[in-house]
Amino acid sequence: MSELYGATHRSLQDQHDTRRLADRLESLAHGEFDASDREFIERAAFFFLASVDELGRPTVSYKGGAPGFVAITAPDELIFPVYDGNGMFLSLGNIAGSGQVGMLFIDFATPRRLRVQGSARLSSETDLLARYPGAQHVVRVKASHVFVNCGRYIHRLQEDRLSPHIPDAQGEQPFPAWKRIDVIAGSLNADDQARVQRAGGSFPLEQYPGEV
User: Is residue 47 domain-resident?
Assistant: First the structure.
């Protein structure tokens, strides 16, 4: 019995005669991080996080930070911080609900991909939050399957520059311009509304310069 594939996967594999290949790839997946996985993950400055809500509706989000913001904390566990976002909490809400996640790490220079599937939970442990100044939450992920993915279709990106919005050692970060958009500003909490005023007030959507 396969832990990765269901009937619909098998149907497509049989249609294209790739069942043997798929079985071989599943046999190479592992439930604990090896030295290569650890090195790749712990130097990553971003990854993509997929999650599903209690109704099975999926979403995917980009998570970024300084290299090392994702840490291996056990043979089959990693953690990552969640910083200030747009307030929707789609990913965290999904994690608090179903807990099932997929993580995709990409190196655009090599190129290389690594996938992690497992179950996640939110943590508010004081020592973990202290590890990440500026973090609102920390997520623990217990891996069930870790496997390398083909990198041949990865585009090579040359620029290697971290976002200036990553919280610094004191947890401080620039106030995001998108919170000053007039259709957004009025719905912010009191602290952010005060920061909008200190930054010069709101502006129309068409004047949004993007985040720099």
Answer: yes
